[in-house]
Write a structure and sequence with these properties.
Blueprint: H1 9-16, H2 23-43, H3 47-63, H4 70-77, H5 80-88, E1 126-135, E2 145-149, E3 172-176, E4 182-188, E5 193-194, H6 200-207, E6 213-214, E7 217-223, E8 230-236, E9 255-256, E10 258-261, H7 265-268, E11 274-278, E12 281-283
Parallel strand pairs: 1-11, 1-12, 8-9
Antiparallel strand pairs: 1-4, 2-3, 2-7, 5-6, 7-8, 10-11
The structure holds benzoic acid (BEZ) and fe (iii) ion (FE).
Length: about 290
């Protein structure tokens, strides 16, 4: 293989992978090489621009650690996360739609009983959340594991804040639906917040004239035997960023009314207004169960 030129390089790289024994890996890499080469040809990429791209990815790598995942952010703001989510989560009408996972889920959040306050010191107006998990057949799903996580009123998830040794998990928990598929918990009012934008992805957004904001939402992951896992959000109606979510995750069916209530110190222990959200989830039976 010599004297490879602009016209023969793509074929040469594809041929170099002929010995790959993993058929799917070869399929994915063949497509990736073809598209990356087509991109360089189409844009007539200069050496300086290519090097800028390498520097960008290097900065993304350097800022990434177990708490900060710049590559997920990059995938999110380029719409790739939502594209992969959408094409892998087609469901019959009536099922709750999926949306992006995001980088702030934490394995091993505390398991709490229905009715618990999951805020654990996170700041924000009190918010009571309740609903039911059903199958597409309308039957309640008992014992579904429901993971919930959200940011505080300053727009930060617990994992973005320095640990104080007292509140390891804030505004996140796992609970299980009761015999009627119902769940309820107390938390804080979700607010819109910017995705982390102090790194290369934030810099890219600024250069592209884009903002980093996400509309207010609660994250849910719901798992129950016999059903497909559902990863989704519930968005707050009226939020000014619903039509310009930095990660393209909003679905109309996931927007809900978060009702505002006058203060009731007996209910909340404070003299501030509180909120409530009622939202039901509909799961798709897993293919194995169908
Ligand atoms: C989130 O909603 O937690 C999130 C999603 C994508 C990027 C950053 C944050
Ligand atoms: Fe979020």
């Amino acid at each position: 293989m010599r004297n490879i030129n602009e016209d023969t390089i793509t074929q040469a790289v594809l041929a170099s992978m002929a010995g790959c024994r993993d058929a799917r890996l070869r399929e994915v890499m063949t497509s990736l090489v073809q598209h990356v080469h087509a991109f360089a040809r189409e844009t007539k990429l200069t050496e300086a621009e290519w090097f800028q791209g390498i520097e960008f990815l290097t900065r993304a790598g350097h800022i990434t650690d177990d708490k900060r995942q710049e590559f997920i952010l990059l995938s999110d703001v380029l719409g790739l996360s939502m594209l992969v989510t959408a094409q892998n989560n087609a469901k019959p009408a009536g099922c709750t739609e999926a949306t992006v996972f995001g980088p702030f889920y934490v394995d091993g959040a505390p398991v709490v009983d229905n009715g618990a306050d999951i805020s654990n010191g996170a700041k924000g107006a009190p918010c009571f959340v309740s609903g039911q998990v059903r199958g597409i057949d309308g039957k309640p799903v008992p014992d579904a594991a429901l993971d919930v996580w959200q940011s505080d009123d300053e727009g930060f998830y617990d994992v973005q804040k320095p640990a104080d040794g007292l509140h390891e998990h804030q505004a996140r928990a796992r609970l299980y639906t009761d015999a009627q598929g119902r769940f309820d918990f107390r938390s804080i009012l979700a607010q819109h917040y910017p995705i982390p934008h102090d790194g290369p992805v934030g810099c890219m957004l600024e250069n592209l004239g884009r903002h980093p904001w996400r509309p207010a939402h609660l994250h849910f992951m719901i798992q129950a035997p016999g059903y497909e896992r559902l990863i989704t959000h519930v968005f707050r109606d009226g939020d000014k960023y619903l039509d310009s979510d930095a990660v393209f995750g909003v679905r109309s069916s996931l927007i809900a009314d978060w009702k505002r209530h006058d203060p009731d110190a007996r209910k909340t222990g404070t003299n501030e207004p509180y909120y409530s959200l009622q939202y039901d989830f509909v799961l798709n039976p897993s293919k194995k169960a169908a």
